[in-house]
Amino acid sequence: MQLTPLPTVVAHGSNLNTAIKYYGGNASDWLDLSSAVSPYSWWSENSQKAPFSTSNFHDLPYVSDSLKAAVESYYGCSGLVVSGSQAAIKVLPRCVNSAAVWITKGSYGEHAASWLAAGHRVIELSSQDIRTAFERETALPDVLVVVNPDNPSGGVFSPDELIQWAHVLKAREGLLVCDEAFIDASPEMSLVSFKMPSNIVVFRSLGKFFGLAGVRFGVVFATLEIRQLLSAHLGHWAVSSPSLWVAEHALQDQNWHKQQRARLHQLSQSVASLLAHENIVGIASLFITLQPRNAGVMQQGLAEQKIWTRCFPQQNLLRLGLPLPKDHERLESAFGLIK
Q: Is the pTM of this model over 0.70?
């Protein structure tokens, strides 16, 4: 028996064990800013409200009517529940015949890796090159994949331009895929807030905004045909019952959503002000991106002070998740010491 080759492995944040291995200490010694997950977690503030029943662990999971209602209430429309948007990112390329795929250069690496692994022709282009191509409407792709807001650059595409591009692609029987993992703090920017052309696929996730990365819960918004294809590839019982329960209650908690958006906005502005002397190239609701003289050297300098960040060496970018206010002085001091 011959096994298939290993797929491309994409580097990610949330790898504090790597930092500990090289720089020592225990997890409690570190300020981990590598994952860009909200430092305010819905679960940590609401776990006392979690009366899990035996059925949550004994019975096979199913998407209840109350969860469907919570999804429609929070997002404004119905979608396919998946085990984090990552699951859909991996599977969607298998639902599409051989295609020319454009992906924003330097974006979340799993997109390019997944389309390549499924045998598609992938080209990575800058946002400006994509805009120029759609202005001219020549030599366009079969599939366009964007991350909005972009990770790690923090760049933003307007809903108007994305919808316009989708119409252009639709005339060519093409598809526009939009990963909105970081958009919850600005829901008015989400494509699901608009009347979407039928050739748009949107990924949303609870991981970042809700501080629930470990729950592995996401929703895909697309036509019924695409959702059925994805569901068939993902198989039965894709999301665990405890995750479904947490997601339902988190999505229903409107007061928490409002509080979270306000404090994340304030926190990102505070961190941006704290790092104003650095070369900030991207500010998003959940991370700040710097382009220092040498991102690898800066990451190492911070790591030596037990602060772990995410380095993107090909772009010479350093991304920092948002630390809680109590850690701002520590972060400011660390930057002062690596000058």
A: yes
